Amino acid sequence: TNIPNELNKVTLYPNPANSVINIVVADTNNLPESYSIYNTLGQMVKNQNITNASDLSVDINSLSKGVYIIKVNHKNQSQTLRFIKQ
């Protein structure tokens, strides 16, 4: 059964990460539409539409070491997760 307003439980691994962070969704038939990554100052540092499952592997090589927020957008909802770039 579908639970209304459930955002398909998104998780990240590995965390902390060095070069790639993976967005994990419970239901791969129901992918999020996009994600945005923000630094601790709230500036967007990366933004990507998700068109297929390979887009769930996020290359973070270009990011400086530190703490980031990733906002995963799914229909009219979003889920925010924190990760550390080592």
Q: What is the number of helical segments per DSSP (H or I, 4+ residues)?
A: 0
What is the distance, rounded to the nearest whole angstrom, between the alpha carbons of the first and last residues? Answer: 39 Å
- Specify the overall morphology: globular
Q: Per DSSP, what share of the residues sits in E-state strands of 2 or more residues?
A: over 45%
Q: How would you spell out the order of helices and strands? A: EEEEEEE
Task: Profile the largest sheet.
Answer: 4 strands, antiparallel
Mean pLDDT: 90
- The stretches of 5 or more residues where confidence is low (pLDDT under 50) are 1-5
Account of the 3D structure:
- This protein has 86 residues and is mainly β.
- The chain has no helices and 7 strands.
- The strands form 2 sheets. A 4-stranded antiparallel sheet has the order 4-3-6-7, with no helix packed on it. Strands 1-2-5 form a 3-stranded antiparallel sheet, with no helix packed on it.
- Strand 1 (10-13) and strand 2 form a beta hairpin.
- It starts with 9 loop residues before the first strand and ends with a strand.
- The model is unreliable at 1-5 (pLDDT under 50).
